[in-house]
Structures are given as structure tokens and as C-alpha cells.
Specification:
It is elongated, with a radius of gyration of 20 Å. The chain is built from three helices and twelve strands; from the N terminus they run E-E-H-E-E-E-H-E-H-E-E-E-E-E-E. The longest helix has 6 residues. The strands form two sheets. The protein has a six-stranded antiparallel beta barrel with strand order 1-2-5-4-3-6. Strands 10-9-8-7-12-11 form a six-stranded mixed sheet, with no helix packed on it. The protein has about 190 residues and is mainly beta.
């Protein structure tokens, strides 16, 4: 990022899906079912969509949010840099980032997915099962997607471990390690 205001700990949290109303509000589709991160920060950083629209005006890098509220599955927000509906429509497709440092503090035994990705996963015997590559939301609980190290062509390239107390013994963010009750051949 050439803009010095761009945070080193920026996390993508949503996408602008269009304008809301006639006064320049924007409608954001959050990536989380609980968009706390969008409400906790008054500084949203933008990147253009993966496929920019032809003849789209220059996208502001930073939006200073003056108000935000939930509207169904979306978030409706107003920003100083968006004076009217035309300006809001021009932002459609932009990716929204906020600084990880502005996220609300998670409760005990709660974790942001972004903090779990990349952690190594070991079983109770200390055997390395892999590293968290992603998480899946299954509704009742999340599932860790574990990339298996040095998987050969005949081996499974990933493991799926439910992120529930029955299998997860410990999450140590400082040590960047998750200990699970899981065997190598599961």
C-alpha cells in the first residue's frame, strides 16, 4: 500500500454492495454474521474490487464513518467522503478493511478467525497435524481447515477438525499453537 495511513494489521471485513437511500449512505455486506469490527472502527479502508468497473472514478483509500447500523444482513453506513447517492454508487464492489487493533476484545474462549489462521495444530502427543488455513462455518460450530505439511500425491492435503471443546484442548495465541484431541490417521 502506498498510502501511509493504511494499517499494517488491516483485515478485510466486508464488501460495499451499493448505495442506500438518497443521502449518500452505503450498504456493506459484512463477512461475519456479527459485524462488530465494522461498528468498532470509524476508519474504514477501501480497495477496489477484484474486477474494477470500466470508467469508475478514483476510489478513496479511507472512509471516515459518521454512522453505522445493521439493516437485515447488511450494514448501512454514512461517511464524510460520500456526500450523495452517486458517490455511494461509485463505491459498489469496493472491499472494506479495518485495523485488527480496532476490533473489540474477544471474550474468554472466543477467537476471531483471523487470529487462528496460520496457527500450527498439534495433537496431545505433540505431533504436528498442520496449520490452520481457513475455517468453515457450519452453523452450529466452526470447523478448522488444517493444511497437512508435506502431503504427498496419495495423501490427504487437509484435515477438518471441529472447533469445539470436545476436540480442542487449548488455543495459545502467543505461542501460535492449537492443541487438539485428534490422531494422525483421522
Amino acid at each position: 500500500m502506498s498510502d501511509p495511513a493504511w494499517p499494517d494489521d488491516a483485515v478485510e471485513v466486508g464488501r460495499i454492495v451499493g448505495a442506500w437511500g438518497v443521502k449518500g449512505a452505503i450498504k456493506v455486506l459484512p463477512y461475519s454474521s456479527d459485524p462488530k469490527a465494522l461498528f468498532s472502527s470509524r476508519r474504514w479502508f477501501l480497495k477496489p474490487a477484484a474486477v474494477p468497473r470500466p470508467a469508475a472514478p478514483a476510489l478513496p483509500t479511507l472512509l471516515k464513518i459518521t454512522g453505522a447500523r445493521e439493516q437485515g444482513d447488511s450494514v448501512v453506513a454514512t461517511a464524510q467522503e460520500v456526500p450523495d447517492r452517486n458517490a455511494a454508487e461509485a463505491l459498489k464492489g469496493a472491499l472494506v478493511f479495518v485495523a485488527r487493533s480496532s476490533f473489540p476484545t474477544a471474550a474468554s474462549d472466543e477467537y476471531y478467525w483471523v487470529d487462528l489462521i496460520g496457527l500450527e495444530v498439534v495433537n496431545r502427543e505433540g505431533q504436528l497435524l498442520g496449520a490452520v488455513s481457513d475455517l468453515l462455518d457450519t452453523g452450529p460450530h466452526s470447523v478448522l481447515r488444517i493444511a497437512v505439511p508435506n502431503a504427498g500425491p496419495d495423501d490427504e492435503a487437509e484435515r477438518l477438525i471441529p472447533f469445539v471443546a470436545a476436540y480442542v484442548d487449548d488455543v495459545d495465541l502467543k505461542a501460535r499453537r492449537i492443541t487438539v484431541d485428534w490422531q494422525m490417521d483421522y
